[in-house]
């Protein structure tokens, strides 16, 4: 296992060495041309190559996600996000969170409108102003510089905005599948055993079925056969490398970014003053 780990950790070097070996062997072989697409052997090899890559992806992508989950930055952000979620629930701030979600949605709508009307030369922050009572009213001083056509376009954008911007709901902020039960007395070993056995039987059945339909025939050593073997090794190495990298990126980049956005959202929630930020 340690050898496999070292190979995976140096996947880029391994792939490069594979390519060099293939080129070295190709010095003793000549590429005769491109196979005819009507040749059944072409489709057999294409199907085998696809199957090989699918197996490698499903085998190594979870491994990449597992490694990504061990990243210290990821673990720190995940813990902070879950702690903040739990604090909101424990403090019984759900009603206030619901009001903040509406406020945050309204801010997203304004940002969406500002981006859309910006193409018309409109600074949306100046499109409205407040009167002596603090009520929001049209800023006629600013709007007089725009013709009726632009004003109508801005109005149309404002009407479409609520349907274009996704509403932020409290449930999507506080929900977390990683929060465990306070007390859990259920024996999970049996359900885990059933799942493991079912997966093992499915895998065994698949391998047995494939093996039953493959007809092997003895062949002498040849440079062509060696090149074919090296090519399959190269395909496997490339697929493993990209599957691991993708799995790690799913956790350290995309999932980690999600946790950071949840943290940022709840930080704003903690400092939000409802009596001041109401517009």
Short descriptors:
single chain; 279 residues; mainly alpha; two-stranded antiparallel ribbon; 2% strand
Oligomer: single chain
Q: What's the total count of β strands?
A: 2
Low-confidence stretches: none
> Portion of residues in helices?
over 70%
User: What is the CA-atom radius of gyration, in angstroms?
Assistant: 30 Å
Order of helices and strands: HHHHHEEHHHHH
Explain what the structure shows:
There is one protein chain. The chain has ten helices and two strands; from the N terminus they run H-H-H-H-H-E-E-H-H-H-H-H. A hairpin with a 5-residue loop joins strand 1 (128-130) and strand 2 (136-138). With 279 residues, the protein is an all-alpha fold.
Question: Would you spell out the secondary-structure blueprint of this structure?
Answer:
Blueprint: H1 2-9, H2 11-26, H3 40-69, H4 72-90, H5 94-117, E1 128-130, E2 136-138, H6 140-143, H7 148-164, H8 170-174, H9 189-213, H10 223-271
Antiparallel strand pairs: 1-2
Helix pairs in contact: 2-10, 3-10, 4-10, 5-7
Give a short synopsis of this structure:
With 279 residues, this protein is mostly helical. 71% of the residues lie in helices and 2% in strands.
